[in-house]
Write a structure and sequence with these properties.
single chain, alpha/beta, globular
């Protein structure tokens, strides 16, 4: 048994950890200032390196530990769909841990972040993992601009099991997890409301909804929500505070360049190893990833959206699409370094060049490709050879 000073020390750490994520977990900017404020306000907890977002509490040892100590090695599964591949990183582990902890305690959570940071992938893999452990019964909803509240209620009702006349829930011994993806997509009605959102607000607020035919109240028990959505804009709407107040908000920030490199190099490198590619091809997996990331960073900074080219909105999914396209070939097609370079040029052109609308932008892209091919791949290709490779 722990002594009173040990219990107090542990509770202090748990309180600061909870405060870090309950308040700071929803922040996009000012994280360093918030971390410094926590460390100065609670000096007795002695957060290592003054970085509370990088640490969790090891309850058994009553000490702080780095999230990276829990990150597992990546194992590539060729049978898995590309969109379901999740490379373990510090972000994927800590957000999965937080979401799982909230769900097991019966709390609802909301995951947000810009497009391409992996919100849906993290939640989907967490749901699959807990489903394999018989911890939950999942109900997955994907909202769009045309989503109707009646349809949403029908889907949820059909998934639940009737326990009594007015009581519904999941299978015996299991909690229900309702995952609503793109929750802010439903369009506004004439008076500014979003009926599917109001239905979900009623669901999480009052634990149930009305039967629309027989007009009686249906109670739903042992149910939590995990919602995910990108910030408003581009067809996504602002959500009412009456809805969002019920959730613990977690914002997934853009991954660092090192993290993106690790993710895509792990996927592409393992694919080439299992696919039996030549040694000189496998040696350039890192060059493919570095070039794609650099192209994304440069084109996002140089070719900005304007009224005439409003579709110049590049995000992290473009990097993923290039890698995905490269993984659709086999070792017989790409047998040497030149073949790999041509493949990278083709996939980059498909994802970036085909979106450009005038010759100046296309020339900028071609010059950038020639620069990256020379610098990253070590090929002394001229711009003219690049143009020939496209034919």
């Amino acid at each position: 048994p722990r002594t009173f000073p040990e219990l107090k020390s542990l509770l202090d750490k748990l309180f600061v950890f909870s405060l870090t994520w309950c308040i700071g977990g929803a922040a996009i900017e000012g994280l360093e200032e918030f971390a410094q404020s926590l460390c100065s306000r609670f000096p007795e907890v002695k957060i290592p390196f003054s970085q509370p977002f990088l640490m969790f509490v090891d309850i058994a040892k009553n000490e702080w530990a780095h999230w990276n100590t829990k990150v597992e090695d990546f194992v590539y599964d060729p049978s898995m769909a590309y969109t379901s591949i999740l490379v373990p990183t510090m972000d994927t582990f800590r957000f999965s841990y937080l979401l799982k902890s909230l769900f097991l305690e019966g709390n609802s959570s909301f995951v947000t972040g810009v497009s391409g940071v992996g919100k849906t992938c993290i939640v989907s893999n967490l749901v699959t993992s807990m489903q394999d452990q018989d911890l939950l019964f999942p109900v997955v909803l994907n909202f769009s601009a045309q989503t109707q509240s009646m349809r949403v209620q029908d889907i949820v009702t059909k998934k639940l099991q009737k326990r009594t006349k007015t009581l519904f829930g999941g299978p015996a011994g299991k909690k229900v997890l309702v995952h609503v993806d793109d929750v802010n997509m439903p369009e506004l009605e004439f008076y500014g409301a979003q009926p599917p959102i109001e239905l979900m607000r009623q669901f999480v607020d009052l634990n149930g909804f009305y039967d629309r035919e027989k007009l009686y109240w249906k109670n739903v028990v042992d149910t939590s929500l995990i919602c995910s959505a990108a910030p408003p804009g581009g067809g996504r709407n602002q959500l009412t505070p009456r809805f969002t107040r019920h959730f613990t908000m977690l914002c997934i920030s853009r991954p660092s360049i090192d993290t993106m490199t690790r993710i895509f190099e792990s996927i592409l490198g393992e694919f080439m190893i299992i696919g039996g590619f030549e040694k000189e091809v496998k040696a350039k997996a890192r060059a493919c990833v570095d070039s794609t990331i650099q192209m994304y960073l440069d084109i996002s900074a140089e070719l900005l959206p304007t009224p005439a080219r409003s579709h110049y909105t590049f995000n992290l999914r473009d990097i993923s699409k290039v890698v995905q396209g490269m993984m659709m070939v086999d070792s017989k097609v790409v047998s040497d370094k030149d073949g790999l370079v041509r493949l990278w040029i083709h996939e980059s052109s498909r994802c970036f060049h085909d979106r450009l609308i005038d010759e100046d932008d296309r020339d900028w892209f071609k010059n950038k490709v020639a620069e990256l091919v020379n610098f990253k791949f070590g090929c002394t290709w001229s711009k003219e050879k690049y143009l020939m490779s496209k034919r």
